[in-house]
Write a structure and sequence with these properties.
Layout lengths: L6 H4 L3 H4 L16 E4 L3 E2 L8 H16 L3 E2 L2 H10 L10 H10 L4 E9 L3 E11 L2 E3 L3 E6 L3 H15 L8 H6 L6 H12 L3 H14 L4 H13 L3 H8 L9 H14 L3 H17 L15 H13 L3 H14 L5 H12 L3 H14 L4 H13 L3 H15 L15 H5 L8 H4 L22 H13 L3 H14 L4 H13 L3 H14 L3 H13 L3 H14 L4 H10 L10
Helix pairs in contact: 3-6, 3-8, 8-9, 9-10, 10-11, 10-12, 11-12, 12-13, 12-14, 13-14, 14-15, 14-16, 15-16, 16-17, 17-18, 18-19, 22-23, 22-24, 23-24, 24-25, 25-26, 26-27, 27-28
Length: 571
């Protein structure tokens, strides 16, 4: 999400914008808000100690989370860097840090530097407030390298306590909340996180597990690595070591459910997804931000529906998919799966309606268009099917609408159903670590009456499908702050969901005027596609990739658009 500061301003020298550091004494105290941590810069230590850069980042994340703060995980930060076209090994400027924090709706950025001679360690940590933009005083700590964890915990405690007059945790209480780990196990874990090759990653993480067998974090990363290799048997053995109270438990459970579907165990998959849905709905401050109601997460509902459909529980599956369709107006997988269920029951007209909605959500998806044509033919609407076939050829090329085998009907969901393999942590803030507070640790309490807080509340309403409430909140923010990019984007998403394409395009454009964004440009491009304006869609996708060359959504969209002539005809 964006803040008051537009991106053009964030590219200026921060030192020229930020008030004198003494202003922190007059700044309003910060509430239980969201933190984003970057790797600490190596200030001249030997290359063999480069692992300390991400090691200090991870210790800061763990320290904040253990003390009850919401903080983006390492993977959440790296995913956003990739989306912004920044190499993971790149030195990130403060302006880039601010831009990423704005995209992620983070309230505070923590960054710093370190030096070490292999025996001693000196760390400097800084806290950057994003709204109002303020660089708070640095904290510095030094000590023996083998006391790194205690040293960094003290740094984090000082960052929190020195800048909040109401902070209640003593250093001793803060330290008690931190997990004590062997330094060598922690080093292997960090080297595993940063390894570029799977074999090296697995070797390092397995050594971390050997040295610290009760520590869940390396188990989760091992499970993720095997899951990405589609080795579900190995992945399940490691995911089983991630306890229910862990910050990554929801992701581990989701991947476990996907594995059960891939192993053709729909009963066990249903049990996992239903349990995950229930656990999220009963957590007052679970893996999502701010205590929002998270019982209905579209990816979970979709996979739960597929598990139930494979067992013949059609009515329950249809209800799950209807809710998923309502919650995510962008994704075409949910109406596509609904169409497959309708076909299985012989409801060809209903199937055509669902496939049409899928095709409208992703006009560039050839499979959506192909099944729409066949459903129209099966429902007796041959003329409409021919018209849709010609339209698809014009926009996607002569071979776009290839036949998709829709028989036998009883196997459609099992054979063609689209399983979501990844929890959309970016959209719903599932990368924000759980705010579970260790025994005896106090949760911080600060004021929340800012535009950012109101935008976050509106996003929670939108994620829960309460569009009227979300729209009221977004419009309230815009009344007080007409240039708020996040509020314009949220309002655009609501208008898009309601089929008001002109209004949605206008709000996306207003958001871009306040701050440029590859994500918003890609969303605007999809609106233009629905309006049958391929030239404008192509231009926006190109601009998105110029901003973020590694943004997958924009790449895929432009790849499909490149098959069309500027006037929308096929090459």
């Amino acid at each position: 999400m964006s803040r008051r500061l537009s991106f053009w301003a964030s590219t200026l020298s921060l030192l020229a914008i930020i008030s004198a550091e003494a202003v922190c004494a007059q700044s309003p105290s910060f509430n239980q808000r969201i933190f984003l941590v970057f790797p600490f810069e190596n200030g001249g230590s030997a290359p063999r100690l480069e692992w300390l850069s991400e090691g200090l980042e991870e210790l800061t994340i763990q320290g904040l989370s253990s003390a009850g703060q919401q903080v983006y995980s390492h993977s959440g930060r790296t995913a956003e860097m990739e989306r912004n076209g920044l190499p993971l090994s790149a030195k990130v400027s403060r302006a880039s840090m601010l831009r990423i924090a704005q995209d992620l709706d983070a309230d505070f950025v923590i960054f710093g530097s370190f030096t070490s001679d292999g025996k001693t360690l000196s760390v400097e940590a800084r806290l950057l407030r994003t709204d109002p933009l303020t660089l708070l005083p640095a904290v510095r700590e030094s000590g023996p390298l083998d006391t790194m964890m205690e040293l960094q915990a003290k740094c984090v405690w000082r960052l929190l306590s020195a800048n909040n007059r109401d902070y209640r945790l003593t250093l001793a209480d803060f330290a008690k909340a931190q997990r004590r780990l062997r330094l060598d196990a922690f080093e292997h874990y960090i080297r595993g996180l940063s390894a570029s090759e799977d074999d090296a990653k697995l070797r390092e993480l397995r050594e971390a597990v050997r040295l610290e067998p009760a520590w869940p974090d390396p188990y989760f990363e091992l499970g993720e690595t095997y899951f990405s290799r589609r080795d579900c048997t190995s992945a399940l053995s490691f995911f089983s070591h991630v306890p229910a109270g862990h910050a990554r438990f929801s992701e581990a459970e989701f991947a476990t459910g996907v594995c059960r579907l891939q192993m053709n165990q729909p009963e066990r998959a249903e049990e996992v997804f239903a349990g995950l849905q229930k656990s999220l709905s009963t957590k007052p401050n679970g893996d999502l931000q701010g205590g929002a109601s998270v019982a209905d997460v579209p990816e979970i509902l979709n996979n739960l529906a597929i598990a139930r459909a494979r067992q013949g529980k059609t009515a329950a599956a249809q209800a799950d998919l209807r809710r998923a369709v309502e919650l995510d107006p962008e994704e075409d997988d949910y109406p596509f799966n609904s169409g497959l269920l309708a076909l299985e029951t012989g409801d060809y007209a209903g199937a055509a309606a669902n496939f049409r909605e899928a095709a409208e959500r992703r006009p560039e998806n050839a499979e959506d268009r192909a099944v729409l044509v066949q459903a129209l033919e099966k429902s007796g609407k041959k003329a409409e099917a021919d018209e849709e076939r010609e339209s698809a050829k014009e926009s996607l090329g002569p071979n776009a609408v290839s036949a998709v085998r829709l028989e036998p009907k009883s196997e459609l969901v099992s054979r063609l159903g689209r399983v979501r393999t990844e929890l959309d942590t970016a959209a719903l803030r599932l990368e924000v670590a759980s705010a579970a507070t260790a025994a005896g640790a106090d949760t911080l309490v600060y004021g929340t009456d800012t535009s950012a807080a109101h935008v976050r509340k509106a996003r929670q309403e939108l994620a829960a499908g309460r569009l009227d409430a979300a729209e009221t909140d977004f419009r309230g923010v815009l009344k007080a702050e007409p240039g708020n990019a996040a509020a314009h984007r949220g309002l655009a998403e609501i208008l898009h969901h309601r089929g008001k394409l002109d209004g949605a395009a206008g709000e996306f454009q207003a958001s871009l005027q306040a701050r440029d964004s590859a994500v918003v440009r890609t969303m605007l491009a999809r609106v233009y596609l629905e309006q049958k304006k391929p030239d404008l869609a192509r231009a926006e996708a190109q601009r998105a990739l110029k901003l973020a060359p590694n943004y997958t959504e924009a790449k895929q969209l432009l790849e499909h658009l490149q098959t069309s002539k500027p006037n929308g005809g096929a090459h």
